[in-house]
Amino acid sequence: MKLISALVFLPLATFAADPLPDPAAVTAAMKKAATFATTKLAVHGGYASAWKKDLSAGMTEHGESKTIISIQPPGTTTLGMAFVRAFQATGDTQFLDAAKAAGKALIECQLASGGWDSDFDFDPDKTKQYYLHQQVLAGDKEQGKRRNSSTLDDNKTQSALLFLLELAHLPECKDDTVLQEALKFGLDSLLTAQYPNGGWPQQFDSPADPATPVKKAAYPKEWSRTYPKAKYTSFYTLNDGNIQQVVKLLLRAHELTKDERYLNSAKKAGDFFILAQMPDPQPGWAQQYNHDMEPVWARKFEPPCVTGGESLGAMETLHDLYVVTGDEKFLKPLPAAFAWYERSALSDGQYARFYELQTNKPLYFVKDTYELTYSDANMPTHYGFKMDHIARDLAKLKELTKEPREELLAKRSGPTDEKGWTKRAKGAAGKANAALQSQQPDGSWIKGDEIEGAEFTKHLMAMAYYVEAAKKGGEAFAKQRQ
Q1: 309 Cβ partners below 8 Å, 6+ apart?
Q2: Interhelix angle for 76-90 vs 23-36, to 10°?
Q3: Using CA of residue 403, residue 407, residue 409, residue 410, what is the dihedral sign?
Q4: How much is the pLDDT for 381?
Q5: Cα separations in angstroms, 340 against 32, 331, 468
Q6: Residue 131 CA: distances (Å) to CA of 120, 126, 140, 420
Q7: Within 10 Å of residue 206's Cβ, how many Cβ atoms?
Q8: How far is the CA of 445 from the CAs of 50, 278, 320, 438, 448, in angstroms?
């Protein structure tokens, strides 16, 4: 890969921002960004999470290589989605071609189990480690020792399927049989991995056991305060919003395809969240449960607990399901959960990630030794053991629960006239200007010492959102720019 270490990375922001930037100028900046991404960053059409400034290697959470791509956001799935949105906003086939290439990269590394791993290295020696769906289609029926565990951790398989779903439903892709087959296989595999109670494991390589019992959440009679080093990937996992992201995918799949299987699966996941709500005195949710629906250990810094983090995600998902379906059973867990949050806030207004089972005392870990403790004086720094955003997000959810369902559905549908689209464009102009002003001369965005996929995605999405609104604003938008 060609090095560009001689380039000087300086921001362009030396001019006053146009309150409503010219959509043509914004589109030109988007095209420059897409050119940089596809010619300098892409590997087999896919993307790492970040790159060294000299482009000598791409980086993911788990490694770096000239030939690696990331499935975990940010990476191939999120940049691919940004290209889809850019094409929908502009109609420019440069973005469609970039999105198709990213989709092809994902299809190449889709596992035989239907989903994806965290990342994929296209180095021929490293690709041999995986058992891939395309190999099965070509007649390879013996997995051997090759890796085949699809993961839902950190929105990996979910974001891949969501991107492929959006790509496949562009009219220009309706006849792409390879894309359509990969999407269908992935969604079918996800549905079969759903447990009888509606939950999903963190990872799957086969259909869920239909004999797995359906139980309500319960406190274990006892639990070890010492990390047991047990395998946890088959447990029902709410951590990192895993099931929340699955439900979002399924609801969008139903919206686009009208296939009732997806809606039924999403509602079944709602039933799981209802089952998984802990009984008094802590009617929140755990990060992960064993098959007896008891909170259990995952990693050495994730103990059995009721969580101040993922409990909110469970509540948001239940509310989303109510809005989509109108079924008020999904709202019934919320009042008790809100009340639990109110009595669980820390003295500084933050919330602990972990609350001890039944006592509700905040739990922390000692840096380096990872001993459980009630003291926050010496915590590891790699994990959010305290969270300052929960109070704000709880307040937002509370306000949503007060709004009529019909109004919430209308808001999801977006503007219906030029005036509404113009209002959206005005609201989006600030982020579009930020993207324009921070873009480098070569079309990239820099954060710290790296070129970051997250910055690319954020700015491309912001500009696409603005251009779409400006275009649909029509004469009303044009008058605002005069």
Answers
A1: 287, 351, 353, 384, 387, 390
A2: 150
A3: negative
A4: 92
A5: 50, 15, 42
A6: 12, 11, 9, 49
A7: 13
A8: 11, 44, 34, 7, 10
Tell me: the pLDDT tens digits for 7-28?
Answer: 344 444 444 578 999 999 999 9
Q: Please name the residues in contact with 388: beta carbons below 8 A apart, sequence gap of 6 or more.
A: 349, 350
pLDDT over 90 (residue 1) = no
Could you tell me the CA-to-CA distances from 226 to 231, 353, 457 in Å, in that order? 15, 18, 40
Residue 363: helix, strand or coil by DSSP?
Answer: strand
Secondary structure (DSSP) of 92-129: -HHHHHHHHHHHHHHHHT-BTTSS--SEEE--HHHHTT
Q: Bridge partners of 362? A: 355
Q: How many other CB atoms are found less than 10 A from the CB of residue 218?
A: 13
Least Cα distance to 188 among 133, 233, 109, 139 occurs for 133
In 3D space, the residue among 70, 118, 121 whose CA is nearest the CA of residue 452 turns out to be 70
- Computed over every residue of the chain, the mean pLDDT equals 95
- pLDDT value of position 9: 42
What percent of the chain is helix, strand and coil (3-state, nearest 5)? Answer: 50, 10, 40
CB 397 within 8 A of CB 442: no
Q: Please state, in angstroms and as integers, the Cα–Cα distance from residue 394 to each residue in 308, 313, 331, 334, 469, following that order.
A: 11, 10, 15, 11, 29
Note whether 237 and 287 are within 8 A (CB): yes
Helix or strand run (H / E) with residue 63: strand 63-65
The closest of 158, 177, 179 to 247, measured between CA atoms, is 158
Range 144-166 burial, b when 16+ CB lie within 10 A, else e: eebebbbbbbbbbbbbbbbbbbb
Task: Note if the pTM is more than 0.90.
Answer: yes
| pLDDT digit string, tens, across residues 216-265 | 999 999 999 999 999 999 999 999 999 999 999 999 999 999 999 999 99
The predicted model gives 305-329 an average pLDDT of 98
- Per-residue pLDDT at 16: 56
Q: Which helix (H) or strand (E) holds 387?
A: strand 386-387
Contact present, 138 and 74 (Cβ < 8 Å): no
Cβ neighbors of 110 (< 8 A, separation 6 or more) are 116, 132, 133, 134, 160, 182, 185, 186
3 band by pLDDT with thresholds 50, 70 and 90: very low
What is the C-alpha separation between 419 and 277, in angstroms, rounded? Answer: 44
Greatest CA separation found in the chain?
70
